[in-house]
Amino acid sequence: MPIAVVDNHTHLDIEREGVAVDVADLLARAKAVGVDRVVQIGCDLPAARQTVEMIDTYAAMLGGVALHPNEVPGLAASGSLDAAYEEIEELAQHPRVRVVGETGLDYFRTGPEGRDVQHESFRWHIDLAKRLDKALQIHDRDAHADVMRILEEEGAPNSTVLHCFSGDLTMAQECAERGYYLSFAGTVTFKNAHGLRDALSVTPLDRLLVETDAPYLTPHPHRGAVNAPHLVPLTVRAMAATLGVAVPTLCEALSENSERVYGPW
User: Fold this and answer.
1) Is 213 part of any known ligand binding site?
2) CA-CA distance, 128 to 225, in Å (whole number)?
3) Which of 40, 84, 146, 204 has the fewest CB atoms lying closer than 10 Å?
4) In this structure, what CATH number is given to the domain that contains residue 72?
């Protein structure tokens, strides 16, 4: 990248296909191609604890902690949700944890019976982000209308990010009007993602972020392989082409937006 950018949502704690994670090597490979900062997301208790350990180790990494919406129904059923909330709130107070997330709603993996507790958890995380003055990162899968409704009802934090944005052009316009940030992942490079590129095309430069969601959602032409932060440039170039802007212009905006949302590394 001609100007260094941030992978603003990655899971470097997760092994995929039995491939061991060498965090130092992944960060070095990313820096070599102009991705010099990352936001590591831990969205269950073990991952949140590991995230805090990692951000104390690697200067290029900030962190986010939360309970993923698909984790919440099981925690509620076991009677351990309140204790999990207490631990997430404690971990979120670490000075290098700059994000409450990923939280939100997932109607793909959780059925109707789990939606009420997902809604309650989403509202709890929104409140936590506001109380601690942290950015909020949102997971939204097949739940666009309810995500937007709950954000409006609760009042969104100052920095609100739709992680791996998957909405349409109209939703992108509404998010931008509300001042939310839209983070695009490798999915925007997929050949059939015409609607997603339409959404990107109407998003102002000052509302854009980029991510891997590694080890998932690897950009074209490596779709299906294990993702990692060093592949962010593929997504950035595809985004620049869709927006009709020069790559350095987009890189500058992505870097500035990341620092505005998360603060200095």
Assistant:
1) yes
2) 35
3) 204
4) 3.20.20.140
